[in-house]
Amino acid sequence: MAPPRVKHYLVNDKNEDPGLVIEIENLGDYILFDIGNIYKLDRHLIKKINKIFISHTHMDHFIGFDYLLRNKLGKAQTVEMFGIAPVVDNTYCKLQGYTWNLVEFEPQIIFKIKQLNENLFETYSLDIKKRFAKDFVKDEPVNSDVIYENEYYRVRYAVLDHKIWIMGYAFEYKDRLFLKKEKVKELPLKGKEIGEFKAFLEDESNRGKTFKIGDKEFDYDYLREKYSYIQEGIKISYITDVVYSKENKEKIINLVKDSDYLYCEAVFLEEDEEQASSVYHLTSKQTAEIAKEANVKNLVVFHISRRYGKNYDIVIDEVKKYFENVS
Ligand SMILES: [Zn+2]
Ligand SMILES: [Zn+2]
After folding, report:
1. E strands, 104-175, in order
2. By the 8 A CB rule, do 247 and 158 touch?
3. CA of 241 to the centre of ligand 1 (A)
4. pLDDT (tens digit, 9 = 90+) per residue, 8-25?
5. Which of 129, 184, 246, 271 has a CA between 20 and 30 Å from the CA of residue 45?
6. pTM of the entire structure?
7. Ion ligand 1 contact residues with beta carbon within 5 A
8. Residue 201 Cα, ligand 2 centroid: separation in angstroms?
């Protein structure tokens, strides 16, 4: 079966502000990783963006927030945002930089922001009807590396060193199980029982157990093979603004392992390694090594330094020396 329809692409050229879009049309989910300059994005798409994951709030990753909001005004919606402290305060202060005296005429826009703050996830709600006051919603203890999850996909994160703490992300669209309808019709199962049968097959911890059909027990593996098939998911990772340290490297590899696509910064050429480490960024070779050791299938590089001008292909060519499948 065809993989899920997930469209993904960089917002800008590789030497411009970072940012990644993931569109999942059938779920109505339009996800943005970082909001740098987003003038190039289609305005209709900006209106539809409903989830935003921020790596950190350096200007080149956050300056587009105002433009995003401006394009969203006039349509009621809730936009979920995720990141690391102080992203809530940064967003709040941006919003307080404007005057909101006519909000009773505005459709309701709410920014619901979940930020990692040491060992807590804190959620705040900033509602246009309250002139974007900073309303505390809840605290949750952090007990996994998943910052967002629904039935279809999850987003994991790692906290990485960029002289400040920043977030790297991995978007994982889950494998999905479907029943072979024609085959299942031959079984003496009705209505609710079919749902139970599917739930039994979906849960891999049932391996080794049996399921009763009629008056006979059948083995999990046998039933799963004969009556269902799997639509494989997709893993897309986004890493930018990190220093090449042993600790960062281990955390990144653990997060992005086996990605179908790794979007990763490659800011400098190998010869500028000293500069790279002093400003906490990666070189071409370092990016290639991470991709190789993490066994990713496709590497897409971006955030290439402006010092190479229009000639930034030299960075991609250098990555290619160490990791073939790069664009
Ligand atoms: Zn930065
Ligand atoms: Zn940056």
Report:
1. 109-117, 120-127, 135-141, 146-149, 153-161, 165-173
2. no
3. 5
4. 999 999 999 999 999 999
5. 129
6. 0.93
7. 58, 241
8. 44
Angle at CA 57, nearest 5°, toward 156 and 109? 80
Give bridge partners of residue 173 from the DSSP assignment. Answer: 153, 234
User: Residues of the chain with pLDDT > 70: what percent?
Assistant: 99
What is the distance between the alpha carbons of residues 83 and 112, in angstroms, rounded to a whole number? 11
- The boundaries of the domain holding residue 290 are 242-327
Ligand 1: distance of its center to the CA of 122 in Å?
23
Nearest ligand to residue 161 Cα? 1
Within this chain, do residues 23 and 107 fall inside the same structural domain, yes or no?
Answer: yes
Give distance in angstroms: CA of 304 to centre of ligand 2.
10
Give the Cα separation of 88 and 132 in Å (integer). Answer: 12
CA of 270 to the centre of ligand 1 (A): 19
Q: Which amino acid is at 189?
A: L
Q: Which of 184, 206, 231 is the last residue of a domain?
A: 231
